[in-house]
# Entry
Amino acid sequence: MNAVLETIHNRVSLRKYADRPISETHMNLILDAAIAAPTAGNQCLYTILMIKDPKTKEALSESCDFQPFIARAPVILIFAADQQKWFDYFSSKGVKAFAKHSGLSFEAPQESDLLLACEDALIAAQNAVIAAESLGVGSCYIGDILENYEFHKELLGLEDWVFPVCMLCLGYHEENAVRVQQKRFDREFIVFEEKYRKLTNEELDRMFEDKEKGFVEKNHYGAENFAQMFYARKTDAAFSKEMARSVRVALKKWDGRRL
Amino acid sequence: MNAVLETIHNRVSLRKYADRPISETHMNLILDAAIAAPTAGNQCLYTILMIKDPKTKEALSESCDFQPFIARAPVILIFAADQQKWFDYFSSKGVKAFAKHSGLSFEAPQESDLLLACEDALIAAQNAVIAAESLGVGSCYIGDILENYEFHKELLGLEDWVFPVCMLCLGYHEENAVRVQQKRFDREFIVFEEKYRKLTNEELDRMFEDKEKGFVEKNHYGAENFAQMFYARKTDAAFSKEMARSVRVALKKWDGRRL
# Structure
């Protein structure tokens, strides 16, 4: 196994950080690695917000499902899908008049533009994660940035066509900390050859066998198996309902309306 | 610079592949690296379709904006956001009856579930890209897999809650091939500190300075600058309109309806 594969397999989600800032040299290497990432048509349809202000970190630790460790990360990076810059550039260069003149329509970004920009943002984020890990800087993805869209828009000063799709907490690993790797599903349930294949109940049983070991018979959900417990914990959770609401509100901006 | 950073910066989008298959050892290392990627709540909300069948590759080279090189890639990996497996698992474990009994609602996956699963899929894809590069296997992302949703659903046998969010062409680099790195925007236009900041026209001019060197005064769009040319080429293009349509159709499946 080469150094790259070792770094990839060694990486764990780090939620406890050494009590020192990330050096400027390391931070620059991490950001440069993110910016080197593949991007659709070399458009770089994303923005990275680098956050160190304790007040903002505190606010994010609350708005992202009340996870206090977020506020203790030396640096937070938010990767936002961004079609605003290209749109503003078009606007500044008379594209609206040109489009009208040429019989084209001048359209606002739409759902497909959002997805494409999310791809750019996430690919860059994972480059940052791997680069960071190679420098001794651990990371943790926070999906909860998908919640509370209106609050984050205000907090971070986001424009309409800037959508925060993922967040990374970054900080050095503590010395001699134990790394616990989480087991993934077996490859046969993740990789299919040639075509998708709906799994049979027997296959699903094997797929979830390890997870089911985590089922607690006496649980306050009244669940009789792991699936029921997980569903209750997920559906009932405020964060999940909030995420659904928040994403739906955000999506409304990406309507491709004629301008 | 360490080996990981070197691999990240060395990587280019590879569209011309050496004429030999990817070894099984290398393919397994690439897939294992993808599966090791971070995933929301360790749910692995994605599926990787590994495609080697020449007929399928041919079909994809046409459906993904007629790019013949796609058919010549030894291996194609499609990363699909996948909430189907968890949903089927819930269904097989009596979650619907349990939910009714407990006063919860049993809901289909919705837009937020799609986005979260897209995150998993893209993060895994970028792990595959970096792992591949470290083994001499080049890659090219194909965003056009977002187009022709219905056709791809049929071609690949996708279930309703499986959405192909990105595609990778993979193959060995040819010996002594020249690598041309594409220049990205300057960091000041990608990374913002603490808050988002709408760029001024003067900043946009500087941001796009290099791209504007690619403007051809005599162009059949009648465009007077790079912005107008790029917009005309993008808006007018069939692939762009198709992508917008296709994504909108796919999104309709993710409606969170009560079941």
